[in-house]
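Fold sample X.
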Amino acid sequence: MSNCIIAQSGGPSSVINATVAGIVKANQLNPLYEHVYGGLNGIEGILQERFVDLTNMSDLENRLLQQTPSCALGSCRYKLKRDNEADFQKIISIMDHYQIETMFYIGGNDSMDTVAALSEYTASHQIANHRFVGCPKTVDNDLVETDHCPGFGSAAKFIAATALQCWYDINAYPSSRTEVFILETMGRDAGWLAASACLSNKVDILIVPEEPFNKEHFLNRVKDVIALRSKCFVAVSEGARYIDGTYLSCGEARSELFGHTVLGGAGRALEQMILDAGIASRCKVQDLSIAQRCHATEQSLTDVTESFQLGMSAHMRTADPSFTGRMVGLKRLPTEQYVVSCFDVDAEKVANFVKNFPSQWLLPDYGGISEEARQYMLPLIKGTPEIIYDETGLPAYIKPYYLVR
């Protein structure tokens, strides 16, 4: 019997480990592989042969893994380049050495590109018995083909709840004190996370990358809201940009290893505009930063359940020896009640594409989101799993596997 390996890549989420737990549990129930290895720090760790054996994970460890935030196996930003054949040869050699037939790679569109590239390499070199399967993960919800991405629902729930709580805070003061509150979310190319703040029903102005930013129009909208009720709540995506593509962010943009722009500061840029215009006496900015993707005590039950089931489905599909180069995604069924099923698609159809927030779901004048958008997002934030706490009263998490060695 051959072995398999699971690895994680890209930005973490609060439910990415549930997919790992699902793959492990599926193999315990239906052993397709003798050993289920975890590759530490993604493809980078696999190239360094840094593995951990997950095969005999206990039920308690599996349960705690599902509620543990971030990447328990560690992540990476390593770009597998098609013209670097040495990396491909080394990966195949390592898989042969450990008798690994299948690699499950959990991540975003760059990770799906890794799955596609490895599958293409083995096919073009007629290398048999080496398979590569993608499992989607991204809080940005910007992967094409799949209805939504594991990780988004929990991040959206955290953002919407935070927006609601902050609204109560800023409105505790009398109307004589004018104030603008700005909530900045992640979202380099797509506005899904910023839009989720509107589920609180408290956002007055929404700024996302899909709608070019107009400074004068924005300031006029802030003035109108302030005149109406003295307080104004703004949600903005870090990737908000002008019509020429220039980022609104006041911070100097830089690039990470995948070549993507690292952003931050859109909220501060809006704050400076508002203060310079003298529109309000006070302006506060809350940048949710990494909190929106690692806050796990309020996971969406829908999200963590689907992430686990997706891992089980990915494992099950590899019973077919021809199953490779595919991503397992989520399909929403046309039923009255919210129901999803798992399906699979060529990873190359997902790799390096971006699913934007639909423009038809944006209300005019930065006015928020449509009812259709709300009905799409609301089922994804439903429910909260029962969290196991330790003796100190803090959530119980497994120790990250990259720290155990």
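Fold sample Y, listed below.
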Amino acid sequence: MTTIHAKTHATVPALTPEQRDRILAAVDAQFDRQLKFTQELVRHPSLRGDEASAQDLLYGAMSGRGLEMDRWELDPEQLATHPGAGKVEISYRGVDNVVGTYRPRQELGRSLILNGHIDVVPEGPEAQWQRSPWEAEVVDGWLYGRGSGDMKAGLVANLFAFDALRAARLEPLGRIHFESVVEEECTGNGSLSALMRGYTADAVLIPEPEEDMLVRANVGTIWFRVRVAGHPTHPREMSSGFNAIDAAYFVVERLRRLEERWNAEKGKHRHFEDLEHPINLNVGKIKGGDWNSSVPAWCELDLRIAFYPGITADEAWSEITAELAAIEHDGNGHPVSAEATATGFYAEGYVLEEGSDAEAILGESHADAFGGAPLQSFTTPGYLDGRVFVQYANIPALVYGPISKDIHGFDERVDIESVRRITKSIALFVARWCGVEDTAARH
């Protein structure tokens, strides 16, 4: 049996059962090393703007595997020319992407991007964790730590899946780009920058923590800031003033109406009909006022809201700003001024259409790694970098990864045996998608 790749007009042998078993055994043989390297990566607190040391570690790991290396600082001015870019409020000085490229001696198979993000969200009050978010402890089959699930275990799985092929003496016949990107948790600009730099392929696989399943669809996301104006006075004359913080609560309630209206429309949007609450508005940060004994003159809210695939970010933004513009008075008759500014994500959602070769091959590989269990898919009300490749390069993006708990929360952790199975699945997928040359046959 052979597989024909139309883009190269080349024919490569299909993976044999014996080669499959060699790959599975190779993942097991090196899994202790994989786990230790994942722990080492978790110990680098790669918060936004502070990803350099973790990227140094991955750069060394990729270059040590003989990959062709590329590292560059994100350029906010260049990114701003792309319609999919998020709004930038920080300096990108020292904020780098890392890409390692494997090139076969002769490129006969399909190409692939193995993508993952290195940035993690803040850990919050460390005293509320059961154990340190940065010590990467293993307890009862779980690896703990900020970023363990989201998504350093997946980033490392990409590399060790490749190692397993080589240990099994199977050399991929397609070009592979290993991407470690920044900014996934706030703008999506890392993956977008890699695409703008010219990194494309016939498929993309992103091992986000997705409960051993494939993401079928996900929402768009906008980050924005609302500034509410008040009128300061002394508290003894509060009735003559206007408290901007009090008014901010009223503004949020009006935005909740928009959230409720969008959720009521879920039946019109394919794959979202059965989700209980697909559209979520989150008040992420709030600050305001200048003095305990002064009625606050201002309040700022930093928010995140989702919207459905098929709706543009501009359309969603128009509805948000119209809702705010319609506010004239609060519940006490005070005039309200609420101005919104986009601050990060300005990203549209996507649907991974069924029937692609990439999904079929992932399904076969998943079944082999999971004891015959079929690959399941689901819809997520969260953001994913897969949208970059689907929307702007027409590349099928397979977002598929291990079981995790409490990502973005206290005691984030990833299921170690799930990581092992996902690594096997990725390795088999790479072998089948790219094709392999069996170098063991030479000896």
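Sample Y note: The CA atoms of residues 172 and 436 lie 4 Å apart.
Also: The first strand starts at residue 2 and ends at 5.
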